Automatic annotation (TrEMBL):
Identification of the protein by name: PNPLA domain-containing protein
Top-level taxonomic group: Bacteria
Alphabetized InterPro entries for the sequence: Acyl_Trfase/lysoPLipase
Length: 366
């Protein structure tokens, strides 16, 4: 039996922990050359709260092993927890950075009666544990160019008063249901990135994208803005170097990041789900699909349904776990740690696929 037949038999006997979906050009390139680290020039990181720490093992396999085999300049573009994941990896290294993020996030404590200001303060303290003293490593990393996505609020979305904010959100939902660009009346995209290195830019798509320099004196604020969920957290103001205004979670526009990446090789996307939802408000619009041209070079790697069902709650960690009835702090921490430990199965399987280059046996069309 040859290696390919052997791998096929193994995959049939042991259900895969991974889903691998590929765009058309990515598929053609892998069929021709296999999946090689030298091909990878862009890595996106989605919004999604603690789901981001639920793929720790995959992140470590990709950043600490696979990409280290051939270093080159790469753009990491993150929204919300995606930007925090990447900042921690760049600041501390892949293994320590992912473990530090998971440890800090897992041991947070929230309850239902907390105010948005209190939640924001707790999250800022966590962020400081990730980036304080590591600003130079993050901003001047020789291999990775950090690109942070946020949103500049417009109209009533600038307010943290519940009635005004609720009115704005209803307006966004209605406008977005007509078309994504219609919601630009309430929010504009912001891209913050270091001034050195290849700059990520994109054609106008209706969101009046603004660009700012990511610097030591505003890195923390831009990362906070990128993760500041309306209602749950307060908006971020007075960011050094930015236009006056209130800045919020980048996932509102770019939830799973459906952008024109300008890749000349492979967009390697470690994700926590097997599909791409462009903006947070698109979750309720099942008919809205990602732009196939944007994802033409994407290799989307995510947990399989079999893997998810094997976890204690049948899914990855979730922000709602903090307030789930009957799930106390100690039990939640135990469950999250188990999920994180199990995620290393995904990393091991990915590296085995890289070693044997049997991606054609497992990849499907994105």
């Amino acid at each position: 039996m040859d290696d390919k037949s052997s791998m096929t038999q193994i995959l049939k006997r042991f259900p895969s922990s991974l889903n691998i979906k590929v765009g058309k050009q990515a598929k053609a390139l892998i069929q021709k050359e296999g999946l090689r680290p030298a091909q990878v020039d862009v890595i996106p990181g989605a919004a999604g709260g603690p789901k981001g720490i639920g793929i720790q093992g995959l992140d470590q396999a990709i950043f600490a092993d696979f990409l280290e085999r051939e270093k080159r300049p790469r753009t990491v573009i993150g929204s919300s927890i995606g930007s925090w994941r990447f900042a921690s990896i760049l600041g501390w290294g892949a293994k320590q950075g992912t473990e530090r993020l998971a440890e800090l996030y897992t041991h947070l404590y929230f309850h239902k009666k907390m105010t948005a200001l209190e939640v924001s303060q707790i999250c800022r303290e966590m962020l400081q544990g990730l980036v304080r003293g590591k600003e130079d490593q993050i901003l001047q990393h020789p291999d990775y160019h950090l690109t942070v996505l946020a949103v500049k609020s417009q109209k009533l979305l600038q307010s943290d008063q519940k009635l005004a904010l609720a009115t704005a959100i209803l307006g966004v939902i209605g406008a977005n249901a007509i078309s994504r660009p219609k919601s630009a009346a309430f929010m504009q995209r912001v891209i913050a990135q270091p001034e050195q290195g290849t700059q990520f830019s994109m054609p106008q798509d209706g969101f009046n994208t603004q660009y700012y320099a990511l610097q030591e004196n505003n890195l923390e604020d831009w990362l906070m803005a990128s993760a500041s969920i309306p209602f749950a957290m307060t908006g971020i103001s007075n960011i050094v170097g930015a236009e006056n205004g209130v800045y919020r979670d980048g996932g509102l526009i770019d939830y799973h990041i459906d952008l024109p990446y300008q890749s000349k090789g492979i967009v390697l996307y470690p994700h926590f789900t097997d599909h791409i939802t462009a903006g947070w408000f698109d979750k309720m619009l099942k008919w809205r699909k990602p732009n196939s041209v944007h994802q033409d070079r994407t290799v989307l790697i995510s947990p399989s349904e079999t893997f998810l069902q094997s976890l204690p709650m049948g899914r990855l960690p979730d922000r709602n776990d903090f307030v789930v009835k009957g799930l106390d702090q100690n039990k939640r921490i135990q469950i999250w740690k188990q999920c994180i430990a199990e995620s290393h199965r995904m990393g091991d399987e990915f590296l085995e696929l890289v070693e044997k280059q049997h991606f054609e046996d497992v990849m499907t069309d994105l």
